[in-house]
């Protein structure tokens, strides 16, 4: 019987320890409770809707529109030469047809090179412009977070409750810095 009594006492002692651990601490012992304020920003919206992003996009478009037009014109010339060669090729002399085919091949190769360079230049400039917008946006997010006493701001999430979405606040503040 003493072993049963001892087991019962051990059980009570263990239950007391668990209860003590689960009991909430007095407010004074806990210290200041964190506010737990959470925010979310939609980066995609900032990159599409902010004045800075729109200005960067417009600058890129104006900078690259001439080269884009030249590429389109070159593509039209290649297409026209290809159609002419296909239509007139059977009645051309072998030397003329070979010369036209070589010219078409040279134009196509030059077009592809220019198109690749255009894409690389555009991507590099777009990346640099977006990096500048994101850098400024991150500074504004930090300011909004500090002013609003946010503990954490998320940029990517699977689901976001609209009440914690502060994208509009950030857009307003970002647009204010752009003026």
How are the elements arranged and paired?
Elements: H1 2-22, H2 27-30, E1 38-40, H3 43-49, H4 51-88, H5 94-147, E2 152-154, H6 167-178
Parallel strand pairs: 1-2
Description:
The protein is mainly α and 179 residues long. The protein has a single domain (2-178), classed as Protein Binding, DinI Protein, Chain A, CATH 3.30.910. Helix content is 76%, strand content 3%. It has six helices and two strands. It has helices spanning 2-22, 27-30, 43-49, 51-88, 94-147, 167-178; strands spanning 38-40, 152-154. The protein has a two-stranded parallel sheet. The termini are far apart. The relative contact order is 0.16. The model is unreliable at 1-5 and 7-31 (pLDDT under 50).
Q: Encode the helix/strand succession as letters.
A: HHEHHHEH
Percent strand equals: under 5%
Rg for CA atoms = 34 Å
What's the name of the CATH homologous superfamily?
Skp domain
Give the class-level CATH name. Answer: Alpha Beta
In the CATH hierarchy, the third-tier topology is known as Protein Binding, DinI Protein, Chain A
The largest beta-sheet arranges its strands as 1-2
Distance between the termini: 86 Å
Give the tally of β-strands: 2
Concise synopsis of the structure shown:
This protein has 179 residues and is mainly alpha-helical. The protein is built from six helices and two strands.
Index terms:
2 strands, mainly alpha, two-stranded parallel sheet, Protein Binding, DinI Protein, Chain A, single chain, about 75% helix, about 180 residues
């Amino acid at each position: 019987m003493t072993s049963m009594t001892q087991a019962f006492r051990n059980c009570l002692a263990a239950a007391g320890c668990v209860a003590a651990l689960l009991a909430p601490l007095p407010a004074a012992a806990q210290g200041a409770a964190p506010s737990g304020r959470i925010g979310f920003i939609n980066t995609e919206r900032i990159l599409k809707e902010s004045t800075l992003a729109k200005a960067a996009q417009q600058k890129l478009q104006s900078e690259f529109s001439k080269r884009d037009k030249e590429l389109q014109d070159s593509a039209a010339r290649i297409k026209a030469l290809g159609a002419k060669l296909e239509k007139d090729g059977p009645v051309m002399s072998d030397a003329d047809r070979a010369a036209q085919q070589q010219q078409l091949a040279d134009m196509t190769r030059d077009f592809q090179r220019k198109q690749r360079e255009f894409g690389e230049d555009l991507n590099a400039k777009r990346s640099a412009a977006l990096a500048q917008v994101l850098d400024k946006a991150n500074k504004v997010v930090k300011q909004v977070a500090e002013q609003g006493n946010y503990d954490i701001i998320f940029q990517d999430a699977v689901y976001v409750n609209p009440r914690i979405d502060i994208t509009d606040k950030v857009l307003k503040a970002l647009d204010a810095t752009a003026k």
